[in-house]
């Protein structure tokens, strides 16, 4: 029992290495070591040592002429292996199917991929319209309920690396969404307070979504479970069971990934 309650001991070198890779993966282009050290609040000497080890093993490339660092071929191979094995899809498919059967609205499972969410499971409810959130589709994380559920759990430094300027924000519809880092931070504060995320017409006109975060064994926000519905059919009273459904599904997936249960909304 204690094994599931107690947090695993943190290995400083491994933690720092993973944080370096996470920031590099979130950027659209290579960055300088000094910038990386600043964003992660690491000493420069330690940052250079970590980068040198990652370069040696092929997970990072050093662009000497530009004095920049980016992900290397070994990181790409790791990503490909993850997609081939589809662990989240294997674990989550039945959970999503059960949730959709119970509530009668379309559901999906998404992971964070840079500034986007990548949909790995899409389960359409009977007699419901097709959605843009098909498997393999990427949408900007700040606009989607799934993305907001995950972003709300990220460390502040990583959130700043992903959405640090107004140029990082896009829009799909006329519905008002966060357009600045400050607006996004305020929205994510509400997500953490409520225990779930939502969006209203910001991905597709006339559709809304609610989502809850899934944690893995390291308590990291590994994915998000969401339900999407026609807003003309779902008012505040009808939305409450949907929130409960995504929270319960996220809880079950967290349990299967040995993570913690999300807080009850």
From TrEMBL:
It comes from the Bacteria. Residues 11-73 form the HTH iclR-type domain. This is DNA-binding IclR family transcriptional regulator. It holds the Pfam family IclR_C. GO terms for molecular function: DNA binding. Residues 74-259 form the IclR-ED domain. Keywords: DNA-binding, Transcription, Transcription regulation. The keyword Endoplasmic reticulum does not apply. InterPro entries: GAF-like_dom_sf, HTH_MetabolicPath_Reg, Tscrpt_reg_IclR_C, Tscrpt_reg_IclR_N, WH-like_DNA-bd_sf, WH_DNA-bd_sf.
